[in-house]
Amino acid sequence: MNYLHKDFRLQEGDVVEVTLDHSANVQLLDSANFELYSLGKPYRYHGGYANESPVNLDVPTAGRWHLVVDLGGGTGSVRASVQILSPQPV
User: Fold this and answer.
1) Residue 20 · residue 52 · CB < 8 Å
2) CA-based Rg of the chain, rounded to a whole angstrom?
3) 31-57: string of b/e by CB count within 10 Å (b at 16+)?
4) Count H helices, E strands: the chain?
5) What confidence score (pLDDT) does residue 73 get?
6) pLDDT exceeds 70 at position 62
7) What is the reported pTM?
């Protein structure tokens, strides 16, 4: 399976902002679920199919997170850019 992948160390409350050139699956996975995704096994994720861009994904807990962008087995390619938005201190 072809996919775009980037991993990050993120904090709870961060937002992963993904800008796409067209519709695609945008998924944020923890390390265990990324392993399952890589093996083609059932997995859990935050996000889903995005028809509009940008996509904002809230980070639920601090740790290592994997961003995956794919076409769900469809043909073609997708371009994506990523920005991490951190909450402003109060």
Assistant:
1) no
2) 13
3) eebbeebeeeeebebbbeebeebebeb
4) 1, 7
5) 78
6) yes
7) 0.91
